[in-house]
TrEMBL record:
Keywords: Endoplasmic reticulum, Glycosyltransferase, Magnesium, Membrane, Metal-binding, Transferase, Transmembrane, Transmembrane helix. InterPro entries: Glycosyl_transferase_4, GPT. It catalyses: a di-trans,poly-cis-dolichyl phosphate + UDP-N-acetyl-alpha-D-glucosamine = an N-acetyl-alpha-D-glucosaminyl-diphospho-di-trans,poly-cis-dolichol + UMP. One of its GO terms (biological process) is dolichol-linked oligosaccharide biosynthetic process. It comes from Cannabis sativa. Pathway: Protein modification; protein glycosylation. The keyword Calcium does not apply. Its cofactor is Mg(2+). It comes from the Eukaryota. This is UDP-N-acetylglucosamine--dolichyl-phosphate N-acetylglucosaminephosphotransferase. The gene is LOC115711528. The chain crosses the membrane at residues 39-57, 69-91, 121-140, 147-166, 178-200, 246-265, 277-298, 310-332. The keyword Magnesium applies.
């Protein structure tokens, strides 16, 4: 009864309070991005998987041991694709909370142009890639002759991933961006124990008088510049939804096909091991990049940031250098960049 009297008294003496708005304002914790474009990724993947399985199982007779290691790495990479697809929405909320976002400049002046698009989602791809690479090394032992170079490759990639995220946070000038890959390349060159010779093209042999030329430190200088080129070749192509990730997918698929063709056509076991080593690095890159492309395809739900471009460029440079096809890598990279840089989709801020 006393409680009821106090309630009645307060209701007559106190002025009515305005009702609070029960609708919650959207926060970064409640942010939801568009679902992944899995159908598009499936169609694109068929262009790669069909020749991939044809070359491995039908066209070439690859040793069973090498074939098993390649397929195990492919299965692990497929798991990485699904992990990437699941982690990107989670990471997007944390990225927005840290005010790392961009806006689609093609929709400027419309409500969609004011939507904050999460940026620097390449950190998810890089993290999943490194976990896959370490897990593969631990559970499926890499040849002891390659352990030092394999770890050096992972160190260079990890260093470049860190520098890319640093660039996204601090917005470094271009003169600094050109220097950053050189520090990561030093780790790779210190562990490089491969040859420093090149095969002279047949039309030039009569003029040079040599079939094989030893270059020494000049070849290492070339590899140093190659790492800088590959990193910035991905980073400089930006501004269109799916461009950076798309060209990485095209280049990675071309590298995998090239490696399989070299493995199947060669009789030198060490030469085959070098290309298998390259596949160990490129297949996880391809799978995780497809997971990011599912969200970065137009209209983009996330932006990749310099974190991804630096990471992807260094991974391909490492795969080419330690896979002993650094001469062919610029041709593959430049051709894919030219093919994929045609402006077929609206521009977007990156």
């Amino acid at each position: 009864m006393a409680t009821r009297k106090r309630a009645s008294l307060s209701s007559t003496t106190e002025p009515p309070q305005p009702k609070e708005n029960t609708q919650k304002k959207p926060t970064s914790d409640e942010f939801q991005i568009s679902p992944p474009k899995s159908a598009v990724i499936l169609v694109l993947s068929l262009f790669f998987f069909l020749p991939y399985f044809y070359l491995i199982f039908h066209h070439y007779k690859i040793e069973q041991e090498l074939k098993n290691s390649i397929l195990i790495n492919a299965a692990l990479s497929l798991i990485g694709y699904f992990i990437t697809v699941k982690l990107i929405p989670v990471a997007s909320r944390y990225v927005l909370r840290a005010n790392l976002f961009g806006r689609d400049i093609n929709k400027r002046g419309t409500p969609q142009g004011e939507v904050k698009v999460p940026e620097s989602l390449g950190v998810v791809v890089g993290t999943v890639f490194l976990v896959l690479a370490v897990a593969f090394q631990y559970f499926f032992t890499v040849d002891s002759n390659w352990v030092v170079e394999y770890n050096a490759a992972l160190a260079s990639i990890c260093f470049m991933l860190f520098l890319g995220f640093l660039d996204d946070v601090l917005d470094l000038p271009w003169r600094v961006k050109l220097i950053l890959p050189s520090f990561a390349a030093l780790v790779l060159l210190m562990a490089y124990a491969g040859h420093t010779t090149i095969v002279i093209p047949k039309p030039f042999i009569p003029y040079i008088g040599l079939e094989v030329m030893h270059l020494g430190w000049i070849y290492k200088l070339y590899m140093f510049l190659l790492a800088v080129f590959c990193t910035n070749s991905i980073n400089i192509h930006a501004g269109i939804n799916g461009l950076e990730v798309g060209q990485t997918v095209v280049i990675s698929a071309a590298i995998v096909i090239h490696n399989i063709m070299q493995i199947g056509a060669s009789t030198d076991f060490d030469y085959k091991q070098a290309h298998v080593f390259s596949i160990y690095l490129v297949q996880p890159l391809l799978a995780t990049s497809l997971g990011l492309l599912a969200y970065n395809w137009y209209p983009s739900s996330v932006f990749v940031g310099d974190t991804y471009t630096y990471f992807a460029g260094m991974t391909m440079a490492v795969a080419g250098i330690l896979g002993h096809f650094s001469c062919e890598l610029p041709l593959i990279t430049s051709s894919a960049c030219r093919l994929h840089s045609m402006p077929t989709t609206p521009l977007a801020s990156v």
